[in-house]
Task: inverse folding
């Protein structure tokens, strides 16, 4: 081989080496980046404008109801949502989850004048929401269905006198009979947002439905426009603003209605003002659907709520992710901080006179703690729930 | 719900063994036939001893590639015959490999994975025969177009395996490393095949060897850069990429001594991760640079060093690559050693230029051509036939989007034929009309029991029924697809109607979803052996999944377990194929 023939070969070798280094650098940049992104990721924050399905409420007959997730700690086929109740005259909770449908997708319950309705959030292959209604404290259930998935919010169902409201996953609001039949659309997806009142609020998503004490259907939303509380009342064929007016510093903050629950004492709303580290929570009450009493703000880290609910006499409570708990006894009352509830507390329940209970879960075990007058949580009851692991897989 | 398809299912394994035996007998017969024909033609034509010019010896580098990769293909083919391959390869090899690659790679790989999942026996057997055939072809075809064709076949099949079996060797996934097999063992088979496919003239100069070694040099340097790149987990021992990989490999089913050795290296890397990676980076860079020089002395030293490093990696990191019951090849290190050795030999040991080129010998006329055909050429033809034995059924199967019923049989178990009268029922269909079994006489009835608010298996079974109707085509008009509600709480027609809408059953011809009073339903459940009951604590209503094929005269001909388990599209379509076959059989009877 001649020297002339060798020269280009040598140059080509160096070019190849350079190309190799450059090429693999790019490759390393791509793949390495993917790797570090994967390992350095953080948990996504909960979607704005939503509250956990873990809740409790009190119905007209004085019974208290609670919904918690049990079973596997990881969400999925072995996590089941359970419904418990405690009769007014009893200090014992019992499991009353309606039978016949897998509850892995979540339960949404609402109390009415004479009954409690429960909607199953669909999971896996099911795409509509079966309903169960009881008038005898969960001993027997009547069945019905909503031919679509109810929204994943704790107030997606409301029970009124002879009627039910449902908020669907796509933002539709429907009204039907108490037997869970004859559903008719009250608002198509986006209809409230495009109404005059919705436009003034800048509705970003619907978050709850309820009946006003007068029986008027209400819908709640998160609003993009600062200071506006997105609560709307059905009026004829349209929706009118029906929420409280906030003043002062709150007028400059975006408001999300986290909860809007009908209670025997009127409707109770839980509002979140602002977002991030300076978010605060407010409770609001109405007994006629138009005039509201609003609580003082409660500073809540990042505005996240692990569980929330209502109690007798218009009481409301929140459990924050750091296990701090607050309750307010009724319209206009101040927030009071409860002693930090026991580890594993999934929901609280506030009964007559502000008596608080903590329902803690661990796998298939439910432990009920009562807050003693001395301010300590005392174990009051232990229940073993026969979780059917593997039945939904 | 059952646990779905088990890769070690005895039904699948037995069917695979049977297919291999059947096709193996055909392959053996093919070899025998061609050898007999060849022998007979030689006797008949009596070729003279003259007419064969002395042929050039095969270049040493090419011989190393041809024999080395021929043996590798045969070995890989034998590995493909492992019993769990039909059911296990897509779910336990192909999908996990693709999982870390970008979406488009996963989608592309899924196409091949679906074909394999739909036709597991045909696909697994095809892989065996194609790879054994390519290997034999390479081994017996020494020179000329026959041999070069074997190289091309190696490239073609290797590319298919590289894309659909190895997800492009993981080159689009994070964590790519030479240590763990980048850029995919089969890509090296393709390189070898391409080299074997080169014309003989390419091997008569050192240029081929030089190019091969330079390419390898660039590759090694590139891999060194990649290995040295910070933030990829290779510089750290604890929780590092390499120690994690080695720990995983050591847990593969294999001889205990080997597992202990690999595990020990994993511990060593955990303790000295930085030093191990530094050694690897320096070794790869040094070997690559030496290969790039093209100087025989340096190249020899680099090839020897690469051989040692490759063997160490093969044992300590790649753990030989073929244990565990689903290993498909011995990974990348042996192919790398073969390629480097071939490159070195192609650079330093050139064939005798004075010998006559083999392509120059061309007998004239068919008679002379037959007479001149060697036993090796006939054997190569038989090896090509072996490839066709595997590839032809696979090509036909890949055009069929419906999965083979063998999957459903594997999941549901054997269902013996029956001949017992079906119990009568009187129920209400989804539109409120009364339906009795007697009213369905004259049609074949495929009957099952479904919970309208079930979240798992009932929607799957409903889809199988829907697919059955589609598969039956015009025969669906002679068939009634019937479900009876299996839920003691949610059983009204509003639930059957909602279920029909959910599953798109409204438009399926001959679909009836029957319900009634709880007493009527309980009676039907009892008569057909269906146990239905509510489970506590938020669990769905439980019932057993059975399907019955009832002939035109109201006699049950088949009782099939219809529980698909946590199925894939393949298992679902497989149940539909099984139902359709049983319905057709019932329709064929008078």
Result:
């Amino acid at each position: 081989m001649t020297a002339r023939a060798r020269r280009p070969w040598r140059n080509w070798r160096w070019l190849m080496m350079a190309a190799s280094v450059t090429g693999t650098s790019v490759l390393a940049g791509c793949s390495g980046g993917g790797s570090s992104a994967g390992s350095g990721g953080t948990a996504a924050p909960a979607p704005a404008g939503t509250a956990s399905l873990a809740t409790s409420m009190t119905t007209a007959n004085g019974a208290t109801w609670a919904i918690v997730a049990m079973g596997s700690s990881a969400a999925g086929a072995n996590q089941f949502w359970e419904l418990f109740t405690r009769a007014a005259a009893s200090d014992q909770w019992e499991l009353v989850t309606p039978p016949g449908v897998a509850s892995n997708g979540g339960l949404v319950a609402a109390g009415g004048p004479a009954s409690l309705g429960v909607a199953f959030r669909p999971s896996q292959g099911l795409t509509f929401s079966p309903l169960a209604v009881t008038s005898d404290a969960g001993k027997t259930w009547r069945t019905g269905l909503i031919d679509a998935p109810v929204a994943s919010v704790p107030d997606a169902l409301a029970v009124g006198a002879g009627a039910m409201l449902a908020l669907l996953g796509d933002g539709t609001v429907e009204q039907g009979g108490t037997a869970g039949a004859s559903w008719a659309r009250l608002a198509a997806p986006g209809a409230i947002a495009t109404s005059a009142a919705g436009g003034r609020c800048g509705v970003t998503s619907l978050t709850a439905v309820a009946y006003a004490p007068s029986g008027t259907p209400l819908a709640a939303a998160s609003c993009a426009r600062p200071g506006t509380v997105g609560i709307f009342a059905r009026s004829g064929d349209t929706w009118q603003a029906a929420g409280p007016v906030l003043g002062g510093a709150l007028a400059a903050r975006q408001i999300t209605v986290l909860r809007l629950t009908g209670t025997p004492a009127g409707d109770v709303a839980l509002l979140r003002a602002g977002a991030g580290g300076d978010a605060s929570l407010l409770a609001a009450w109405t007994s006629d659907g138009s005039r509201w009493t609003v609580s003082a703000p409660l500073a809540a880290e990042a505005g996240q709520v692990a569980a929330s609910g209502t109690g007798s006499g218009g009481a409301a409570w929140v459990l924050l992710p750091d296990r701090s708990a607050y309750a307010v006894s009724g319209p206009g009352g101040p927030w009071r901080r409860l002693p930090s509830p026991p580890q594993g507390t999934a929901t609280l329940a506030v009964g007559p006179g502000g008596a608080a209970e903590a329902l803690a879960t661990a796998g298939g075990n439910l432990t009920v703690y009562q807050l003693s007058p001395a301010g300590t949580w005392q174990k009051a009851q232990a229940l073993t729930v026969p979780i059917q692991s593997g039945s939904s897989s | 719900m059952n646990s779905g398809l088990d890769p070690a299912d005895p039904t699948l394994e037995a069917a695979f063994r049977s297919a291999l035996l059947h096709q193996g007998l055909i392959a053996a017969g093919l070899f025998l036939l061609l050898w007999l024909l060849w022998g007979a033609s030689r006797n008949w034509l009596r070729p003279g001893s003259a007419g064969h010019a002395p042929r050039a010896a095969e270049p040493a580098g090419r011989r190393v590639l041809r024999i080395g990769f021929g043996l590798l293909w045969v070995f890989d083919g034998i590995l493909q015959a492992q019993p769990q391959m039909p059911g296990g390869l897509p779910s336990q090899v192909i999908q996990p490999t693709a999982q870390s690659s970008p979406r488009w790679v996963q989608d592309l790989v899924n196409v091949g994975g679906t074909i394999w999942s739909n036709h597991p026996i045909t696909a697994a057997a095809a892989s065996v025969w194609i790879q054994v055939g390519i290997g034999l072809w390479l081994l017996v075809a020494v020179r000329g177009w026959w041999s070069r064709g074997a190289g091309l076949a190696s490239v073609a099949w290797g590319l298919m395996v590289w894309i659909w079996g190895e997800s492009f060797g993981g080159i689009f996934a994070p964590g790519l490393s030479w240590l763990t097999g980048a850029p995919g063992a089969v890509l090296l088979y393709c390189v070898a095949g391409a080299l074997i496919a080169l014309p003989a003239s390419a091997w008569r100069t050192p240029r081929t060897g030089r190019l091969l070694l330079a390419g390898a040099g660039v590759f090694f340097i590139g891999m060194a850069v990649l290995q040295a790149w910070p933030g990829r987990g290779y510089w750290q021992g604890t929780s590092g990429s390499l120690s994690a990989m080695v720990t995983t490999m050591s847990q593969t089913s294999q001889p205990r001594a080997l597992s202990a050795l690999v595990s020990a290296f994993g511990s060593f890397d955990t303790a000295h991760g930085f030093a191990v990676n530094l050694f690897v980076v320096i070794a790869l860079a040094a070997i690559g640079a030496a290969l790039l020089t093209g100087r025989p002395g340096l190249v020899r030293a680099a090839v020897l060093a690469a051989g040692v490093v490759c063997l160490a990696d093969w044992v300590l990191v790649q753990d030989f690559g073929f244990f565990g019951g689903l290993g498909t090849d011995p990974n990348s290190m042996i192919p790398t050693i073969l390629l480097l050795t071939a490159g070195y030999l192609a650079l330093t040991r050139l064939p005798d230029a004075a010998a006559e080129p083999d392509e120059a010998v061309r007998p004239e006329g068919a008679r002379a051509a037959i007479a001149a055909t060697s036993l090796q050429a006939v054997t190569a033809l038989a090896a090509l036939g072996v490839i066709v034995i595997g590839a032809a059924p696979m090509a036909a199967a890949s055009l069929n989007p419906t999965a083979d019923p063998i999957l459903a049989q594997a999941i549901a178990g054997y269902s013996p034929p029956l001949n017992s009268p079906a119990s009568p029922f009187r129920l209400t269909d989804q539109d409120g009309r009364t339906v009795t079994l007697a009213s369905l006489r004259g049609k074949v009835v495929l009957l099952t029991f479904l919970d309208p608010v079930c979240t798992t298996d009932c929607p799957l079974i409903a889809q199988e029924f829907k697919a059955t109707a589609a598969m039956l085509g015009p025969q669906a008009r002679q068939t009634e697809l019937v479900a009876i509600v299996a839920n003691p709480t949610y059983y009204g027609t509003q639930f059957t109607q909602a279920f029909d809408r959910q599953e798109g059953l409204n438009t399926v011809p001959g679909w009836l979803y029957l319900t009634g009073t709880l007493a009527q339903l309980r009676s039907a459940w009892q008569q057909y052996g269906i146990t239905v009951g509510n489970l506590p604590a938020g669990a769905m209503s439980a019932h057993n999944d059975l399907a019955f094929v009832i002939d035109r005269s109201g006699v049950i001909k088949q009782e099939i377990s219809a529980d698909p388990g946590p199925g894939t599209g393949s298992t679902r379509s497989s149940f539909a194929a099984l139902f359709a076959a049983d319905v057709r059989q019932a329709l064929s009877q008078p």
